[in-house]
Write a structure and sequence with these properties.
The complex is a heterodimer of chains A (357) and B (435). By secondary structure, chain A is of the alpha+beta class. Chain A contains nine helices and 15 strands. By secondary structure, chain B is of the alpha+beta class. Chain B has helices spanning 10-13, 23-33, 37-56, 107-120, 141-153, 184-192, 196-200, 222-225, 242-252, 254-260, 290-294, 336-356, 363-370, 372-379, 402-422, and strands spanning 61-62, 75-76, 79-80, 93-97, 104-106, 124-127, 134-139, 169-170, 210-213, 228-234, 239-240, 270-272, 278-280, 299-300, 305-311, 325-331. Classes of the chains: A alpha+beta (357), B alpha+beta (435).
């Protein structure tokens, strides 16, 4: 039955103060310093002398309402009923007194949640939607992350890295997971397979042509129907044509591989922000637990943990030791694919006699 | 629910092993333990389709067009390509909902959202997606409207999806962090809520993202991910508590301080005096934050706080990764006029972007194509040496109007010096304020 539609209230982004912990409201903009009493716990001290204790907790990120309510129950029983979420989807409980911290941690851990992820830990892996919900994914996201966090859980719980390690995953080369100290991303290795019967009906052909970074796509008549063809010698298999034109299937159960990138760092601390660099590719996309990808990540973490100095992020560490040493320490193969040939790539070459042996 | 046949999920079951909390166990709880049959069946077919993806290594969702009445975006439509096999999760749309600035919640409001969501949706939710939205994952087309109506009534609104202004993000900032140099909360809401129309009705060349970080640690990754990055900073001298410095040396040792603080300063602006006091060359401090991060009890940002604005960060497609570029090295954000000015800069930027970018071109790519100077002239900002890493290396440029442009520079310097003289007493006038 047709009903009168309700007009939306265009309220936009809600005011956070109504949900904020009262100690944080009271001391807004008046914080003096913080300490890191143990992994997963931060203590912030205000000019007024007030303290707010934060307990950071890793979860499965894709929360069912039972888990969400359990997190709320714990927040009511052991904390002050105010929480927030970090950019990496950890939940944080804020309490106003130190005495509340240990019972809260005990209760959270008893329910299977993981306290950690602060300072020089391996933080929770930020990830994308994958097979669970994305329309163009080459792999799953939640599954890769679950399998990897099972193996990295001690590094999340214990702050033993030289500096913080942010890991990200992405299920296609659009890289919604973003920059990370280590990034595990899909890397396609074969051009799209085109279903020519569907292109004319589904795809806006000129905009698909325009999406290609290397101008490898051109209009063509195939079997008497308007379609698109790909110059496979030019194609870089990036998958940019697939979202606007799903008959150009880029995902391949065998040839869509995983690649690993390192040294992406958003912070301005010490060096300017940096983008991640390719270090390994051709890693099988191997559900349900992706052991090969986890092994490479653990190996990079091992080398970093052994060799980096305090406060060096992965990019700082490699800046100091150089790329030849990085490949030596991680025992990863260095190939022609590591040498960039995209625009601006000359800036990535060594134009000096600074060499390491 | 009695007659439901549960799909076998041998591969997904392996993701219930291991110590990290399992999202598969969560979906199974919805399938097995929820009192509502609709949710049991939806979770069952979702698991079935996901298992099918794991077996075949392919995704089976396609997009479409779904929105709520009055809006053109905010929903990620998902229709199953294998819906005949998994009919109960055939329509599985995500609602992108804007979180409160700073991602603060009470347990009460989370419970209220959970109640609404299980009434209309799958019961699966993520805090938050990569752009910063609450992702309510899994509602059919009809219930999408009901769920939105319900949460919209108690203060939540949809975020952006498609070529539009997207949901913004801001760090915890002044609510808890001593490094905060601005009111991230107010900046976040002033900016994005000025553009609600552009959030809800996608009509831009491509997406446009605001992110706000309270200091150059840039916890929101704004330089790498936002078209419009706002970063808190300060212009006067950083504060040093020399007694705390001495206490730090007492605790950690002089060598630790030298190796981890003094020698790590990217511009050699720190030195340790013979009496263990810390000397700071503030004119050459670039506000990288390293020393403040290592010694938060000893060192703090100065008093003359404000923000920098960087434009054009984005990820890979189409032309490659781009960082944001400085377009405003420093502006104060204290008065209503200051806030009106930052909103005006955002409006100028989005107007210019809307008029000049190609379809599916991000702001950074547009600037790469037309050059920063054309963009600055388009939005009415003057060039500043803080915008560049170094001046041009190529001689391929016409410099006919050199004298006029040089005169403009000296005029701007003079005006800046006058403004500085006129500034209130007691305010620290540092050399950098002239730039």
């Amino acid at each position: 039955m047709a009903q009168k539609h309700r007009m939306p209230i265009e309220s936009g982004c809600p005011d956070g103060f109504q949900y904020m912990h009262p100690t944080m409201v009271r001391n807004f903009g008046q914080w003096k310093y913080h300490t890191h009493p143990r992994p997963g716990v931060l203590c912030h001290v205000a000019e007024s002398g007030d303290e707010v204790w934060t307990v950071r907790v890793g979860t499965q990120r894709i929360l069912d309402v039972f888990t969400l309510r359990k997190l709320c129950d714990l927040g009511d029983r052991y904390a002050d009923g105010h929480v927030r979420f970090t950019i990496r989807s950890n939940i944080e409980y804020m309490v106003d007194r130190q005495e509340k911290v240990d019972p809260l941690i005990e209760a959270l851990e008893a329910e299977g949640f993981v306290v950690g992820g602060t300072q020089n830990t391996v933080a929770f892996i930020s990830h994308t939607q994958g097979w669970l919900h994305c329309d163009i994914p080459g792999t799953d996201a939640s599954g890769v992350v679950k399998a990897m966090m099972d193996e990295l859980i001690d590094e999340f719980r214990n702050a033993e890295m030289p500096n913080r390690v942010h890991i990200t995953t992405s299920c296609c080369q659009i890289n919604c997971g973003g920059q990370g100290d280590i990034a595990i991303n899909i890397q396609h290795t074969k051009p799209p397979k085109i279903n020519h019967d569907l292109v004319a009906n589904i795809c806006e052909r000129p905009s698909v042509v325009a999406r290609c970074p290397v101008a490898a796509i051109r209009p063509a008549m195939v079997n008497g129907k308007p379609s698109l063809e790909v110059d496979e010698k030019k194609c870089i298999c990036c998958g940019a044509c697939y979202p606007p034109c799903t008959p150009m299937q880029i995902n391949d159960p065998e040839h869509s591989k995983l690649a690993i990138w390192v040294g992406g760092n958003h912070s301005n601390a010490r060096s300017k922000p940096s983008f991640q660099k390719l270090v390994a590719a051709g890693i099988p996309n191997n559900p349900p637990r992706w052991p090969e990808a986890t092994a490479v990540v653990k190996n990079i973490l091992r080398a970093y943990k052994e060799d980096a100095r305090d406060w060096e992020r992965i990019n700082d560490w490699i800046d100091r030791i150089g790329w030849p040493r990085f490949f030596e320490l991680t025992e990863l193969p260095f190939t022609k694919f590591h040498i960039d040939n995209w625009r601006g790539s000359r800036k990535s070459l060594n134009a000096s006699a600074h060499l390491r042996f | 629910m009695n007659a439901m046949k549960k799909h076998d999920t041998p591969m997904l079951d392996q993701l219930e092993q291991g110590p990290w909390p399992s999202f598969i166990s969560g979906i199974k709880r919805l399938r097995d333990d929820h009192e509502e049959g609709r949710i049991n069946a939806m979770a069952n077919d979702l698991l079935g389709q996901l298992e099918h993806s794991y077996e075949t290594r392919r995704g089976y969702w396609k997009g479409g067009t779904v929105s709520v009445y009055g809006y053109g975006g905010g929903i990620i439509p998902r229709f199953s390509e294998v819906g005949d096999q998994y009919p109960k999760s055939r329509e599985f749309h995500t609602l992108r909902v804007q979180p409160p600035a700073g991602n603060h919640y009470t347990t009460d409001i989370l419970r209220k959202l959970a109640d609404s969501w299980e009434k209309w949706g799958s019961g699966l939710v993520t805090f938050h997606g990569q752009t910063g939205n609450i992702m309510f994952i899994g509602a059919d087309t009809e219930n999408t409207q009901h769920f939105f109506d319900e949460i919209n009534d108690y203060g939540f609104d949809l975020g952006g999806a498609g070529p539009c202004v997207r949901t913004a993000q801001s760090c915890v900032g002044a609510a808890r962090c001593e490094q905060s140099c601005c009111n991230e909360h107010a900046i976040h809401r002033s900016l994005v809520n000025n553009f609600v129309d552009d959030v809800h009705r996608p009509a831009l060349p491509y997406k446009f993202k605001f992110k706000v970080s309270g200091c150059p640690n840039d916890c929101m990754n704004s330089i790498e991910r936002a078209d419009f990055a706002v970063i808190g900073t300060w212009r006067d001298d950083m504060k040093v508590d020399q007694a705390e410095v001495k206490a730090y040396i007492e605790r950690k040792g002089r060598k630790y301080l030298i190796d981890n603080v003094i020698t790590r300063c990217p511009t050699n602006a720190l030195s340790l005096a013979d009496d263990d006091s810390l000397e700071v060359d503030n004119r050459n401090c670039v506000r990288c934050m390293h020393c403040l991060n290592v010694m938060p009890k000893c060192l703090s940002p100065g008093d003359e706080k404000g923000v920098s604005i960087l434009i054009g960060g984005k990820r890979t497609l189409k032309i490659g990764d781009l960082f944001g570029t400085v377009i405003v090295p420093f502006m104060r954000l204290e008065t209503k006029e200051d806030y009106a000015r930052i909103v005006e800069i955002a409006e100028e930027t989005i107007d210019f972007f809307a008029e000049n970018a190609l379809e599916h071109e991000r702001t950074g790519e547009m600037i790469e194509r037309i050059g920063l100077v054309n963009f600055l002239e388009g939005i009415g900002l003057e060039p500043d040496p803080n915008m560049i890493a170094h001046p041009r290396e190529s001689s391929y440029v016409r410099t006919d109007d050199w004298d006029e442009e040089a005169a403009k520079w000296f005029d701007r310097r003079q005006t800046a010096a006058k403004t500085k003289d006129a500034s209130p007493k007691g305010e620290k006038a540092s050399d950098q304020s002239a730039a």
